[in-house]
Amino acid sequence: MKIIFTFQPKEEFVSDLKNSFHEVEFLFYKKIKEADNELPEAEVIVTMGEDLTDYHIEKSTKCKWIMVTSAGLEKMPFKAIKKRGILVTNARGIHRIPMAEFTIGLMLQHAKQLQAVWKQEEDSVWSRRLPTSELHEASLLILGAGAIGGEIARLAKAFHMKVTGVNSSGSPVEHFDSICTLKTFQKELANADYILSVLPSTEKTKHLLQVEHFEQMKDTAVFINIGRGDLVEESVLLEVSDKKLIQHMYLDVFEKEPLPEDHPFWKNEGITVTPHLSSITKKYMPRALEIFKKNLTTYRKNSENYINVIDAERGY
Questions:
Q1: Which of 178, 235, 234, 183 is nearest to 205 (CA)?
Q2: Is the previous residue joined to 9 through a cis bond, with omega within 30 degrees of 0?
Q3: Mutual angle of helices 96-111 and 147-157, in 10-degree steps
Q4: Where are the extended beta strands (E) located within the chain?
Q5: Residue 71 has what pLDDT?
Q6: CA 153 – CA 158 distance, rounded (Å)
């Protein structure tokens, strides 16, 4: 069987795959356009999830399985994939640890006013009057109570935070004190000290938050978005900041990336910009390829025990 990678992993990962599956022919390309001639013969395509189009699906006449080595799927051509009945799996869950640590880091930084501390050090200012607070017994509302949200909740409970989650069903989830849905979460906004989004980009979540939602939050509330940039329109975020409806916003994701140098977010005192790095870790590729290897073993055995099977109809 022939498996095409539309990106080039490090040699150590290439060697591991070849040594683990001697009977498989692996072909690695830096870009999908370089793989064009081989697509008709590929039984499996491994992609980062942002390069496949309807054209590639139509040309991959023998393709039975697509492995996406990321969690994001919004750029996948699911209509063409569904029409062909191609299996899709992804690397959901591998961002759980780094994104949870990143979130706890942001909340601690905010509570302990570390940005201001570093500024004081830079200016040689000795002042102990910074308005520091604690995470202890603070309320955290997590929009997206999946693998990532669950790990954030688990770590938050170590600080004795009160954690409320939002998912599609409203069903209880471990580490959360309570769960609500996208239809009922508004009633929790007034109680939350920290509002965090790890929601994916779907028809239901695009531009979900409006100014009215921020108006319901405490004026001391903190909003953190590490999910997808289209959850809130940029104009809404700027209005919220200009009106000082909440205390601060930490944004790691944006509708257009990279964020332009002249974007008003950079200079806005109520917004901290981080360059979509909450999921970045040296362990990313090892974890993604470990999922791929387990699924490849399943595929070779004609079994059904795949990890992270995606519903092409829903797109997640």
A1: 183
A2: no
A3: 40
A4: 2-5, 25-28, 44-47, 65-68, 87-90, 139-143, 162-166, 178-180, 194-197, 222-225, 248-251, 271-273
A5: 83
A6: 9
In Å, the largest CA–CA distance within the chain is 68
Please report the pLDDT score of residue 72 as a whole number: 82
Question: What percentage of the chain carries pLDDT values higher than 70?
Answer: 100
State residue 106 phi and psi, 5-degree precision.
-65, -45
Stated as kind and residue range, the H or E segment containing 78 is helix 78-84
**Residue 110 contacts residue 116 (beta carbons within 8 Å):** no
Q: Specify whether the CB–CB gap between 6 and 29 falls below 8 A.
A: yes
The CA distance from 250 to 197, in Å, is: 11
| Cα(94)–Cα(283) distance, integer angstroms | 9
For position 316, what pLDDT does the model report? 82
Global pTM reads 0.88
Type of residue at 160: H
Q: How many CB atoms lie within 10 A of CB 231?
A: 23
Mean pLDDT to the nearest integer, 261-269: 97
Other CB atoms within 10 A of residue 37 CB: 8
Which has the minimum average pLDDT: 15-19, 42-46, 53-57, 92-96? Answer: 92-96
